[in-house]
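@channel sequence for tomorrow's demo:
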Amino acid sequence: MLMHSQCHLSDEPSAPGCVVIVVEGGDDTFIWYCRPGDEQWVKYDYDIGTQPALPDPEGNEFEKTPICAITACRGKFYFYGSTTELGVLEFCPDPVFSSIAIDDSYESEDDEEEHDEDDEEECVRTTRSRAQTPSAFHVESVGDLYMITLFYVSPRSDEVAECVVEKMDFSARRWRAVDDLGGRTFLLSRYYFGASCVCGENSGGLQQDCVYVVNPWKKEMLVFDVKDGTHSLHKLDEAPSADKAFWLLPKEN
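structure tokens (generated this afternoon):
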């Protein structure tokens, strides 16, 4: 199951308190962790709640909720809890799980009035796309935590209708929409991977302030331009058949 697992460092390896974790994939609800210099890994079983279970011979209606994707930022680890909650894992020195309640209320009466006056057609489009089950990615970039949410055209479709990028304001406990990525590029592989990188001379044609999403099953790559709100689809006909997509990132100086 290692191909479905994720390995992350909480900080630079030389930083005090740096922790390395491996989150098991699939339905497993445990992590492995160690610190640089340790001679062995420690296994930790976690319990962050339950979710409806798929039908099984034993008739279980609920099962423990697994962590599907996790991201390191500012010495802690963050994972998707719900639209109103952000899961947190920190080491003190043992693993401690908690959550941040997200404030999704309007900040002022002007914000609410502006929302009410939105064009009717735009409201219908957004409501339709956001009514579908989304995919959410967390990406750390220069010390900030971003969330990229993909909304699909229908529950059983993998065609993306909308891409929304937001940055966490920890002081206000709010996700705030952004219209650029600070000149960086986000690379995503659905269900398990998200990374930020700098576009330089050897970037292979990657564009700044864009989000790249690979769909290995359909051999396609979606590119979302965060600045102008447009997106394009690129066929990867020569790519090998696979159920996962991997990005190889150059070392940043």
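heads up for whoever presents: The longest strand covers residues 160-169.
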